[in-house]
Design brief:
Layout (H helix, E strand, L loop, with lengths): L2 E6 L27 E3 L15 E11 L2 E14 L2 H5 L2 H11 L8 H16 L5 H30 L2 E2 L2 E2 H4 L14 E16 L14 E3 L11 E4 L11 H23 L15 H9 L3 H4 L6 H14 L3 H14 L10 E6 L2 E6 L3 E7 L7 E9 L1 H4 L8 E4 L4 E9 H10 L6 E8 L17 E4 H14 L1 H4 L2 H11 L8 H16 L1
This protein binds a DNA duplex (20 and 20 nucleotides) through strand 9.
DNA sequence: CCCACGAAGTAACGGCAGTT
DNA sequence: AACTGCCGTTACTTCGTGGG
């Protein structure tokens, strides 16, 4: 029975620095000779005992604390450089002995040696700050890192591991600590991307109750790590501390079940592409990378919902007939009824705090735009011991959280959706009133959760993006408006089922670095 | 012109659970 | 047993708007 490793990609403060390219970017690319090298976060190697044990590495991305997306599977380790083997080479032992004055057989042993050697120094100089101690400790580990790095560089040259004609260590030469970096963990014989997003959900997600969505797998009773980039299945250690025997066995059972479920996912051929779809760095990819900019990206306003609301209001107010088409082609279809516009159209921004307010003789159409933020509103938690005693019942549709047999939390979400609905609903007129909530495709807001949520119709950026794209194709007039062309480009990001920001950002940086070497 | 308020942005902080 | 850094929460800041 082999182990499964779930590894998180595109995370960490390291990536915030423009010059740093996450090493994991290589996972989604083939080398120039068509091989798949995999880099396992965070440092590119595993603890000694895992080598030779792992069947499959699932490359994942965090959606949130309890929801991870599986992007690809890498199986059949063909080749790896084991850090401890490198350190145990005779010449490396000599180097380490000379510097550390101690025999090192295990990578993890560096810390211990440091502690022993510096015991007296730190006892005598208690004032040495902890921070400084940490820095010094890191320098010791860096020696081991350096030896592994040197060995990898040799291998990269002899095996010709290149992307777009450049050695991987050349490409990443602007990375912080590139001189100490590890570049690959192993070479995989098979690499398959998922056909469509596969999600695994752990405890704490509201999706549990209706987890019959496509490709969502619930790993009940298992916690996904919040800090670590790795989790191994079967899970290595279960702490028995503070646990009753029954809880302990239940947790063991849950973990076994989770492991079996992951195996099912891996073996389910329907979930994975038939071919190895990882790309090679070629001229076409470089070209796409250069063209892929839009002005909102440049001014870093791609995530700003106010900007999108302003632009939508601008185009609908100023392009004659555009809103008419939009209502016909998109809103009517979403509402499953014909919305017929009549008379002069007025477009308001932030009227009564409502993002977009369209009004003509016969209709009021409200669009609440949510890109990053959630629905605002107070969450009122009512806790009552045994609802019968208090004479209260839990209304249907509310989120009911059962803490124990007689403790029930009733979560009421008194939301801005309700507020806006009431504002418009209370207007005494014969106009038809339609409410829409516009969100990116990756940001699935559960309307049922909110008061009056059901009065809103979900509208996705994909709908709006496709509409604008089609309009641009059909109307030469629109093509001349470069703001409209760029705005449409900027919407594409939010029309994706993945929030691919880091994924795409890393790809962009990677290709940029290759061109600059 | 002042002030209150809403909403988005931001900084700080504690919890978490695997890793060394 | 100490360490780590993400994540959710909370409190605070900033900005714009609209009422008085």
């Amino acid at each position: 029975m082999g182990k499964i490793l779930l590894n998180v990609m595109y995370a960490g403060d390291y990536l915030k620095e423009e010059n740093n390219v996450g090493h994991e970017v290589i996972n989604m690319f083939k080398t120039d000779s068509g091989e798949n090298y995999i880099y396992v976060n965070p440092y590119g190697f595993l603890a000694d005992e895992h080598y030779g044990q792992i069947d499959t590495v699932l490359l994942t991305r965090r959606i949130n604390a309890n929801k991870w997306e599986i992007l690809a599977k890498a199986t059949d380790w063909e080749y790896a450089l084991k850090p401890d083997d490198i350190l145990n080479k005779k010449e490396n032992q000599e180097i380490l002995n000379k510097i550390l004055k101690k025999e090192i057989h295990k990578f993890s042993f560096c810390n211990q040696v440091f502690d022993e050697e510096n015991k007296t120094i730190f006892e005598e100089n208690k004032e040495i700050a902890n921070e400084e101690k940490q820095k010094k400790k890191l320098r010791y580990r860096a020696m081991a890192h350096k030896l592994i790095h040197d060995e990898q560089v040799k291998e990269i040259e002899s095996k010709g591991i290149t992307y777009g004609g450049k050695y991987i260590y050349e490409i990443l030469n602007k990375n912080q600590n590139n001189n100490y970096a590890t570049y690959f963990t192993f070479k995989a014989k098979t690499f398959r991307e998922s056909k469509e997003p596969i999600y695994i959900l752990a405890d704490g997600t509201i999706e549990e109750k209706n987890s019959n969505k496509r490709n969502e797998y619930f790993l009940s009773g298992v916690n996904l790590p919040k800090q670590s980039f790795k989790i191994y299945f079967p899970i290595n250690t279960i702490k028995k501390k503070d646990e009753q025997e029954e809880e302990y066995t239940n947790r063991k059972k849950a973990q076994k079940k989770a492991y079996e479920k992951l195996q099912e996912i891996i073996n389910n051929e329907n979930l994975w592409k038939e071919e190895n779809t990882s790309k090679k760095i070629d001229d076409k990819l470089k070209e796409v990378n250069r063209e892929n900019k839009n002005f909102l990206q440049i001014i870093k306003k791609e995530e700003d919902e106010l900007v999108f609301s302003n632009l939508l209001a601008h185009f609908f107010a100023n392009k004659k007939g555009l809103f008419n088409e939009f209502v016909k082609e998109v809103l009517s279809k979403k509402a499953k009824k014909a919305i017929l516009l009549k008379g002069e159209l007025n477009v308001f921004r932030e009227k009564e705090n409502i993002d977009l307010w369209f009004e003509d003789d016969d209709n009021i159409i409200i669009i609440e735009n949510k890109i990053k933020s959630k629905i605002n509103g107070r969450i009122e938690k009512e806790m009552f011991i045994n609802d019968k005693e208090y004479g209260q019942t839990i209304e249907e549709g509310k989120n009911e959280i059962k803490k124990s047999d007689n403790e029930i939390f009733n979560e009421r979400l008194n939301s801005q959706l309700k507020k806006y609905f009431n504002i418009v609903d209370n207007i005494k007129c014969r106009k038809a009133k339609n409410f829409f909530l516009l969100t990116p495709n990756y940001n699935d807001i559960e309307l049922v959760k909110y008061d009056e949520g059901n009065s809103y119709i979900k509208l996705y950026y994909e709908d709006v993006y496709n509409f604008f794209k089609n309009q641009l194709q059909d109307q030469v007039e629109y093509q001349k408006d470069l703001y409209m062309v760029d705005f449409t480009k900027a919407m594409k990001k939010h029309a994706s089922p993945y929030n691919h920001d880091m994924y795409e950002e890393m790809e962009r940086r990677f290709v940029k670095c290759i061109e600059q070497v």
